[in-house]
Design goal:
The protein has eight helices and eight strands, in the order βαβαββαβαβαβαβαα. With 211 residues, it is of the alpha/beta class. It has an eight-stranded parallel beta barrel, surrounded by five helices. The longest helix has 18 residues. Helix content is 38%, strand content 17%. The chain is globular. Strand 1, helix 1 and strand 2 form a beta-alpha-beta unit. The two termini are 27 Å apart. It has a single domain, classed as TIM Barrel (Alpha-Beta Barrel), CATH 3.20.20.70. Pathway: Cofactor biosynthesis; thiamine diphosphate biosynthesis.
C-alpha cells in the first residue's frame, strides 16, 4: 500500500519553555502537513496526553501525525504512523505488528542501510546526518551533499523507489542544494523550533522544499 509522504517533515523536540503541543500548533498554523512527535522523556500517560491533543490539532489542519518509536501506542490514539530510530530494528516484524494501514519510517546513515529499509518495506527513510546536530547526537560520519548524491545514484541504479529525506543539522541555506541532489525532501527540527519565529522559519523552509 503506497502512502502519502510529505516533502517537508517537521519534528518536535524537548525544548525548555516550548511544549511539543505549542510547537505543533504553530507549525500547523504555518501550513505543516506532516508532524513527527519525537518525545523520549515522558511516560505513557504523559505521552498519550500530548498525543491526543496533537492529534486534534493535526486533524483540524489536515496534517499527518507520526510518532517516534512508541509503537505500543498504536491503538491508543489517532496516530497515522511511526518513525523507528533504531537502525538495527526488524522492520519486517514491525510491519507485521503494525499492519499495512500505518505509515512506517526508518532511519539510516549508510546506503546499505537504505537498501535494507527498502527491502524490509518501509514507506520512507530519514538519511543523515547531513551536518552537525545536537538534536539527535551520534557518531556517524556527516554525509554532506556528496553523500546524498551518491545515495540517490545508487538507489536509481538498483531501480529502488524509496522516498529519502535528508535529516540532521539542516539549515535554510542548505535546502536548495540538498533538493538538487535528487532526494525526496527534508526533515527539520532545531532550525525551525528553535528559530526566533517558528512560524516564519517553517514557511521559509516550505517555500524552498515544496515549491
Amino acid at each position: 500500500m503506497k502512502k502519502f509522504i510529505e516533502k517537508l517533515q517537521f519534528i518536535t523536540h524537548d525544548i525548555p519553555g516550548l511544549s511539543h503541543i505549542q510547537q505543533v500548533e504553530v507549525a500547523c498554523s504555518a501550513g505543516a502537513k506532516w508532524i513527527q512527535y519525537r518525545c523520549l522523556s515522558k511516560n505513557e500517560d504523559e505521552l498519550l496526553k500530548d498525543i491526543h491533543r496533537i492529534a486534534e490539532i493535526c486533524d483540524d489542519w489536515g496534517a499527518t501525525l507520526i510518532v517516534t518509536d512508541h509503537i505500543n501506542l498504536k491503538d491508543k490514539a489517532d496516530i497515522q504512523g511511526f518513525h523507528i530510530e533504531d537502525m538495527q530494528a526488524d522492520f519486517i516484524a514491525l510491519r507485521r505488528q503494525l499492519g499495512e494501514a500505518f505509515t512506517l519510517g526508518g532511519s539510516s546513515n549508510t546506503i546499505e542501510g537504505l537498501i535494507r529499509l527498502y527491502k524490509e518495506g518501509v514507506d520512507y527513510a530519514g538519511f543523515g546526518p547531513f551536518s552537525t546536530t545536537t538534536t539527535k547526537p551520534n557518531n556517524a560520519a556527516l554525509l554532506g551533499l556528496e553523500g546524498y548524491h551518491k545515495a540517490v545514484e545508487v538507489l536509481k541504479s538498483l531501480d529502488l523507489e524509496l522516498p529519502v529525506l535528508a535529516v540532521g543539522g539542516i539549515q535554510l541555506d542548505d535546502v536548495e542544494d540538498l533538493m538538487q541532489t535528487g532526494i525526496f525532501g527534508v526533515a527539520v527540527s532545531a532550525a525551525i523550533n528553535q528559530a526566533p519565529d517558528l512560524r516564519e522559519a517553517y514557511e521559509a523552509f516550505y517555500q524552498k522544499v515544496v515549491r
